[in-house]
Amino acid sequence: MFAFVSLMVLAYAQLVSTENLNTTGYPSRVRSIFLLAGQSNMSGRGGVMNGTWDGVVPLECQPKPSKVLRLSAGLSWMEAQEPLHRDIDVNATCGIGPGMVFANSLLNLNPRIGVIGLVPCAVGSRMGTKISEWGRGTYLYNQLLRRAEAAAALQAGGRFRIRALLWYQGESDTNNPQDASLYKMRLERFFTNLRADLRLPELPIIQVALASGQGPYIDAVRQAQFGVHLRNVKIIDAKGLPMEPDNLHLSSPAQVQLGDKFAHAFAATG
Ligand SMILES: *[C@@H]1O[C@H](CO)[C@@H](O)[C@H](O)[C@H]1NC(C)=O
Ligand SMILES: *[C@@H]1O[C@H](CO)[C@@H](O)[C@H](O)[C@H]1NC(C)=O
Ligand SMILES: *[C@@H]1O[C@H](CO)[C@@H](O)[C@H](O)[C@H]1NC(C)=O
Ligand SMILES: *[C@@H]1O[C@H](CO)[C@@H](O)[C@H](O)[C@H]1NC(C)=O
């Protein structure tokens, strides 16, 4: 009996390590689904220099086969490996983001969280994405919704397996005063619409407060982010995290810190 079980575990481990894993056979493995959305710093540019990723994966971002999965662009679960957004943010070179660290750190904080399924949906592309590009009905919004629903549909327990949205965006809204002043309204509407469309009105959301941005209206956007007073929306701060030499993106060590902050913030939601 024990040998048989070991064999099954081995067979599963081999299945999981295959790219484009077809999960039809074990739909209820993933216990906790997390949606990752926003722009380049969520997608991940740690270790990217001149359009090339250096391939360095920090210890904290190493894969945990069979414990951390990611939903591929083709909507199947596969072993999660950096760069998490490589088949989603396809017009940019992706590197280290906060997602893997988040999952590994959360497993340490709360081993009972079970198998984690990460659903990468952030798109930074070359120019970044503004909050207006994430409004209901847009390409990015629809993709996020479609991927969230697909991930939930693969699991017994359905959409209640979706535990939180991790959101890091706003840098592209710091360029002009109109975008900055409309930011709070657009952000709240985005959160509210997404919760309604997922039929998860209490879905926990953890957002990141910008440290700086692409334009001069950083403080206005930060204020808007801190001004969101919807239930179950938490904020963590990117201020003080180290940047890449391009001075535009968070470095891999910064992403390790940020992913850990995400995990602590989520663990504190109880
Ligand atoms: C996944 O596997 C099931 C059962 O083996 C099969 O019916 C289905 O077509 C497969 N799906 C894909 C996308 O390969
Ligand atoms: C990146 O490009 C700049 C300007 O072309 C160059 O000075 C620098 O050496 C390059 N860095 C790497 C790591 O290739
Ligand atoms: C990538 O670029 C192509 C061509 O400009 C565009 O059609 C597509 O929407 C872009 N995809 C993403 C994810 O940015
Ligand atoms: C990445 O995040 C940092 C910290 O918030 C910010 O200064 C930077 O502008 C962001 N980069 C981009 C390209 O959005």
Description:
By secondary structure, the chain is α/β, with parallel strands linked by helices. The protein has one domain: Rossmann fold (3-Layer(aba) Sandwich). Helix content is about 35%, strand content about 15%. The protein has helices spanning about 1-15, 40-45, 100-110, 140-155, 175-200, 220-225, 250-265, and strands at about 30-40, 50, 50-55, 70, 75-80, 115-120, 160-170, 205-210, 235. It has a 7-stranded mixed sheet with strand order 5-4-6-1-7-8-9, with helices on both faces. Strand 4 and strand 5 (about 75-80) form a beta hairpin. Helix 5 runs parallel beside helix 6. It starts with a helix and ends with a helix. One 2-acetamido-2-deoxy-beta-D-glucopyranose binds near residues 49 and 50.
Key features of this structure:
270 residues; alpha/beta; 9 strands; 34% helix; binds 2-acetamido-2-deoxy-beta-D-glucopyranose
